Amino acid sequence: MEKMRLGRTGLMVSRSGFGALPIQRISFEDSKAILTRAYESGINFFDTARMYSDSEEKIGNALSGVRDNIIIATKTHAKDKKTLFEHLETSLKNMKTGYIDLYQLHNPGKLPEPDDKSGLYAGLIEARQKGLIRYIGITNHSLENAIEAAESGLYDTVQFPLSSLSSDEDLKLPEVCKKADVGLIAMKAMSGGLITNPATTFAFLRKFGNIVPIWGVQRMSELEDFIALEKNPPVLDEKMMEIIRKDREELSGEFCRGCGYCLPCPAGINIPLQARISLMMNRSPYAEYLTDSFREKMELINDCINCGHCRDHCPYKLNTPELLKKELKRYHEFYEAHKSELKAEK
User: For an engineered disulfide with 330, which of 195, 213, 249, 278 has Cβ 3.0 to 4.6 Å away?
Assistant: First the structure.
């Protein structure tokens, strides 16, 4: 698999990275099979986070035997230096390694003060001096923060949501990172599953030359799709751009990206799915969303207690409770329009 230089780190990473957030939803056995297949296909860059439940453990379980051949990135959502080291110790233990190649601050609301000797950035420097981490990165959903981090000279990499749906404003970031020689990692390259043709966003991101997408994978079939694209990279021609333009038109305006920062919901609402269910039903097979069990889950939206947790934690500043109400209404309308069709199938 083709490799590329990850900015000034000098790390040579596979041009397709493995995003390990989704493997927290599958078994150790299934995740081991997928991670092993990814490694054997040539993927050597694996990105996870302390926040992703048992994702780190699954990487350690599957890949500790080939540790010297892979590049591991993880993240801490710590708010202080003490917690950062606690997270780092846990991550090292989980992944059965003595060091992390790339240690990233996980979506901070603002960049930490580099001169605060007891702060987060001082913790990163200390961890690097001790040999526990090799390079320092940051992830963010704010373009302003991402650009500030890239231009600050303090971070070796920046991770930001980039896909074929990205706005022209967001697409200024690759050039900023290129000028600063900062590695650029693209999260949400499939826009949380709303992009249904992986070839389009694969080809779109590749044209920039300095973007490493981390594809979120939880099924072997998904992994095989990206392996196939690496073997025969698609060309970003006019036909493909027309598909991208149509996607952008259909997904214009505010919509949930499915990042999951809103969870857990005290009412049991699966916000990342239910806050964009109308988009999912119109862009993928919808039969599974019209079952009795799924309808019951959608009705949990009526149990929202307006605690504000989802709204306060949304990096895109969405009014999530209102969005959920609108999606429930659209769901009811979609169900009524298609229930006779489903009965006919039965």
Answer: 278
Encoding tokens for residue 239? 């036909």
Whether residue 259 lies inside any domain: the answer is: no
CA gap 8, 125 in Å, rounded: 17
242 three-state secondary structure: helix
Beta bridge partners of 46: 18, 72
Which tokens go with 334? 């979609």
The length of the chain in residues reads: 346
H-run or E-run covering 18: strand 17-19
pTM of the model: 0.86
Residue 25 above 90 pLDDT? no
CA distance to 199, 268, 273, 346, per residue, from 256 (Å): 22, 17, 9, 32
User: Structural domain of residue 99, as residue ranges?
Assistant: 3-237
Crossing angle between the packed helical segments 320-345 and 292-299, to the nearest 10 degrees: 160
Whether 145 has a pLDDT exceeding 90, the answer reads yes
Tokens at 156, concatenated: 């070796």
Strand pairing category for 157-161 and 133-139: parallel
Of 216, 237, 258, which closes a domain?
Answer: 237
Q: Report d(CA 278, CA 281) in Å as an integer.
A: 5
